[in-house]
Amino acid sequence: MISSRDDVTRLILINKVRKGLKWRQVAEAVGLSKEFVTAGCLGQMTFDKTQAEVIGELFELPDEAIAWLQIVPYKGSLPSAVPTDPLIYRWYEIVSVYGTTIKELIHEEFGDGIMSAIDFSMDIQREADPKGDRVNVVLSGKFLPYRSY
What residues does each domain of the chain span? Predict the structure, then answer.
């Protein structure tokens, strides 16, 4: 019995490893970006019926799991306030060190507001470099100004 979105994520990860699938392959089958599809398969985004059915077929999921993929999840996947996984911790470190700089520069350029994580896109690519390949991450979010009322 599947009782949560976490159960579906576990099934997806088990079958991803078993079948040797790459997130890029899954995204191509679904017709969305690898970043969005990966987030959804890890329990952070909602899929429509058609998308959920494609994912269900790829990962050999039961109908109950396909239904869970269509339910809005509780977002926020980190198990602790300070992440312990080294890669995720480095992102935490980036925000800890550069967060105030990012905030200051966004406010200086756009005014008082936030960068949306809802009207948002992300692109992660490998960038070849003779000194060692680099991770190129582009985050693009709509600016949402605070309004007076």
Answer: 5-68, 86-145
Classify residue 40 by burial, with Cβ atoms within 10 Å: 0-12, 13-18, 19+: buried
* Helical axes 5-19 vs 49-59, angle rounded to 10°: 50
d(CA 36, CA 118) in angstroms, rounded, equals: 11
Query: What's the confidence (pLDDT) of residue 10?
Result: 97
The catalytic site residues sit at 90, 93, 116
Label residues 127-144 b or e (16+ Cβ within 10 Å = b).
Answer: eeeeeeeeeeeeeeeeee
Look at the domain 86-145 and name its fold. Cyanate Lyase; Chain: A, domain 2 (3.30.1160)
> Among residues 11, 119, 5, which one has the least CA distance to residue 73?
5
Question: Which residues does the chain have with pLDDT short of 70?
Answer: none
Architecture of domain 5-68: Orthogonal Bundle (1.10)
- pLDDT for the residue numbered 106: 95
Handedness of CA 119, 125, 129, 133 (dihedral sign): positive
How confident is the model at residue 129, as a pLDDT?
A: 98
